[in-house]
Structures are given as structure tokens and as C-alpha cells.
């Protein structure tokens, strides 16, 4: 399973990249605003800064909601850097724009996906990635992980190549469960990745190994 980090914070992206396990980055307008990145030029520059830190795909989201606007914005984003993936909302014009870009060999990520039917449409439109938001479903007492399982089942039935990018991942158990269910990618905060390192028996064991080494030296 590929690990993407879901942030626009350059320090956190660097930290995950330095671990050697990072496969890409996802961003959205809210994450940009959280870092205080506002204004089109600053946002575009920030995407390039992110691409210069990581080796993999970097999702950059359009803010237009009509087909022409999405195509215009998406083409400008794709020009920025070869690692840019055009992130499009799961609405009718977003699906149309997804088909437009996939027909031209430009990578896409269909975002704000909350149902298997939406994921089926994204795959039919040739999306590179589909982003089911599992945390936001959990927030409203609906099993987000079940959506990953349903999409996996449907995609496997027909051999769709669209990669399932489990989004809105909130914690380590989401990451582990996504891996069990066969999600292709997960995107989450740095804490959902570094949390995987932790086990008290590792800490206790390491402490004892080091203490025993010292006894003999
Ligand atoms: C997906 O690409 C989104 O950026 C993201 O995962 C949303 O997560 P949230 O529900 O924690 O805001």
C-alpha cells in the first residue's frame, strides 16, 4: 500500500520523506488555508515546493465547479510540475473533466467520494485515483472502512485500474484496516504514519538490549 501524507505543511512532508516511506502528497483548499497559503500565485508556488520535496504524486485540487473552469485550472496545474495530479470533485462536471484529462494521459484524483456508485463513475471516467473519505463517514456513524471494501470488490470484479486512495484517514488503525482491505493507497496526517512505529515491547526490548550491551563493555 502506498503512503501519502495529507497536508500542505512542508516540515511534516519533509519529515515523512526523510523516513524513506513516503509515496506522495494530497492537499485540499482547507489544508492550504490551514498553513496560511492564500492567493493563486502563492498556492501554485506551494505546489511546486511540495513537488520538490517528494518523489511521488502530488494532488492539487481545482476550485472551479464547471467543466470549462476545471479544464482551464487543471491544465495550468498540470503545467506546474510532472508530479501534479489533478484533483477533481465528485460532481457531474468533475467526472466529465476526469474523462477529459484521462483521455489526454493526465493523472486525476476524484475526491469527496462517499458511495460505491460514485467510485464506479470515477473508474468509468478513467480516474487514476478515487478518494473515499473514511473518517468523515465515521464522523456521521457510517462505517467508512466498509466503503473501501465495497469499492475494492467492485473494482476487482471488472479489473478497473483506478487506484483506491483511502482519504480522511485519521489514525493508525485506519491505516492498518485499509491495508487489510487491499486499499492501494492511504492518505493521512503525519501522526497516522509515525503512530505505526509505536509498541511498548519495542521500547522495553531496546532498553534491555542496550543495558545488556553496556554490562559487557
Ligand atoms: C483527501 O485527499 C482529503 O484531503 C482529506 O483526506 C480530507 O480529510 P479530513 O476529513 O480529515 O479533512
From TrEMBL:
Family annotation (InterPro entries): Aldolase_TIM (IPR013785), TAL/FSA (IPR001585), Transaldolase_3B (IPR022999), Transaldolase_3B/F6P_aldolase (IPR004731), Transaldolase_AS (IPR018225), TSA/FSA_arc/bac (IPR033919)
Gene Ontology CC, one term: cytoplasm
Subcellular location: Cytoplasm
UniProt xrefs under Gene3D superfamilies: Aldolase class I
Catalytic residues (UniProt): 87 (schiff-base intermediate with substrate)
Annotated family: Belongs to the transaldolase family. Type 3B subfamily.
Chain's role: Transaldolase is important for the balance of metabolites in the pentose-phosphate pathway.
Protein name per the record: Probable transaldolase
Gene: tal
Amino acid at each position: 500500500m502506498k503512503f501519502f501524507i495529507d497536508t500542505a505543511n512542508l516540515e511534516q512532508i519533509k519529515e515523512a520523506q526523510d523516513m524513506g516511506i513516503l509515496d506522495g502528497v494530497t492537499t485540499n483548499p482547507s489544508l492550504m488555508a490551514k498553513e496560511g497559503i492564500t492567493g493563486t500565485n502563492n498556492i501554485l508556488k506551494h505546489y511546486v515546493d511540495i513537488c520538490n520535496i517528494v518523489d511521488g504524486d502530488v494532488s492539487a485540487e481545482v476550485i472551479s465547479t464547471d467543466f470549462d473552469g476545471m479544464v482551464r485550472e487543471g491544465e495550468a496545474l498540470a503545467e506546474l510540475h510532472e508530479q501534479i495530479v489533478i484533483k477533481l470533485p465528485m460532481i457531474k462536471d468533475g467526472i466529465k473533466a476526469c474523462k477529459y484529462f484521462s483521455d489526454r494521459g493526465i493523472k486525476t484524483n476524484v475526491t469527496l467520494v462517499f458511495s460505491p456508485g460514485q467510485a464506479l463513475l470515477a473508474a468509468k471516467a478513467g480516474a487514476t485515483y478515487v478518494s473515499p473519505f473514511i473518517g468523515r463517514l465515521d464522523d456521521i456513524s457510517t462505517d467508512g472502512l466498509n466503503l473501501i471494501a465495497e469499492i475494492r470488490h467492485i473494482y476487482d470484479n471488472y479489473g478497473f485500474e483506478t487506484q483506491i486512495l483511502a482519504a480522511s484517514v485519521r489514525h493508525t488503525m485506519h491505516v492498518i484496516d485499509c491495508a487489510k482491505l487491499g486499499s492501494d493507497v492511504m492518505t493521512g496526517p503525519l501522526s497516522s504514519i509515525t503512530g505505526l512505529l509505536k509498541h511498548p515491547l519495542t521500547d522495553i526490548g531496546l532498553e534491555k538490549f542496550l543495558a545488556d550491551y553496556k554490562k559487557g563493555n
